[in-house]
Amino acid sequence: MAEVLLEQVGKRYPSGFEAVKGVDLAISDREFLVLVGPSGCGKSTTLRMIAGLEDVSSGTIRIDGRVVNHVPAKDRDIAMVFQNYALYPHMTVEQNLAFGLWPRRNYRRRWQAWISGAYRRAYRDESAQIQQRLQQAAALLGIEDLLQRRPKELSGGQRQRVAVGRAIVRSPKAFLFDEPLSNLDAKLRVEMRTEIKSLQRRLQATSIYVTHDQEEAMTLADRMVVMKDGLIQQIGAPESVYANPANRFVAGFVGTPAMNFLTGRLESHAEAKELYFHWAGQRVPIPAAAIPPRAPRELVIGIRPDALGPQPQSAGSFQFRGQLRLQENLGDRRDLFVDPGEGPQVVCRCLPEGPLVEGKEAVWGASFERLQFFEKGEAGRRIEFDS
Questions:
Q1: Residue 102 sits in which domain range?
Q2: 3-state secondary structure (DSSP) of residue 185
Q3: β partners of residue 284
Q4: Does 308 share its domain with 223?
Q5: Mind listing the pLDDT tens digit for each residue in 126-167?
Q6: Model pTM?
Q7: What's the CATH code of the domain at 139?
Q8: Helix/strand/coil for 96
């Protein structure tokens, strides 16, 4: 397998649009790294530059220490799995799997020989090696019974397995996945997600995966890279990115439902140990110890929906009043949509315990330890407690 290194990599199109802006990224050998972000953030363009399908406008890409900026895609020894499967409709599954294995020397003649069956007679050793790799990949993916079918006879999940198999048989230095599950239904996406992660662990393969689905990113990644507007916003293990987002964009993008953001102002209380947070027409008391010492007066408090819920009135948590507008029953949990009186609604995710009446006002709260603090400006950087 391989290490992949990007040094100040950028992509600018002739129109002047800058899709990727000075990306620095090191992918370790055998790592499963996921690029995630909204449409147009530059993640697929970054992947295509690594693959050699897009020219690099600036910076350097290295694969196993070798600069590959001007190396053709076919000579980079990587395999790519596409969103649309990219299978040849006139070929069988076996022929699709074998397509990338033919020796480049006398390529056309050998391919025609394979199709006719003459290849196995004329090139017995090569044919045996190819057949062995095909059978290994087919067994690994559970598609042994599909080898003589054509793509139109396969389901979406089966087509995606064949696309992955075509990458596996080549034994490349790295695997690149460009939103491979986006065309599948929800149930099949979960199944294939599990299969891809399991496969990567068995193959111990360096893998770079692109998706706009943050849940997919968190379940697959050893490390995830969150991108926006061609820039990297944060790199880290999924649990670290979720728990300690670098800014408001990352906090709002990672996690379902999205984090609640309460924009307000801090004011001192007569008691030095307590402050008031003015938000949505309410004054919420907060102990000074629960707020980062360098927090500005104007700020944004972030609260994950699973940290919020209905509470009895007390002084032991961050509490506000709000009217329950809507509740969605999801079986093992409920999403509650609360109107605090002014500004955006607040979302709570809680267990389905006890009756809640829509239209009724109640007290809602979260532990002070679950609050996160962000700057109010456009960058929205997270405000840290002094270590």
A1: 4-251
A2: coil
A3: 277
A4: no
A5: 677 788 888 888 888 889 999 999 999 999 889 988 999 988
A6: 0.89
A7: 3.40.50.300
A8: helix
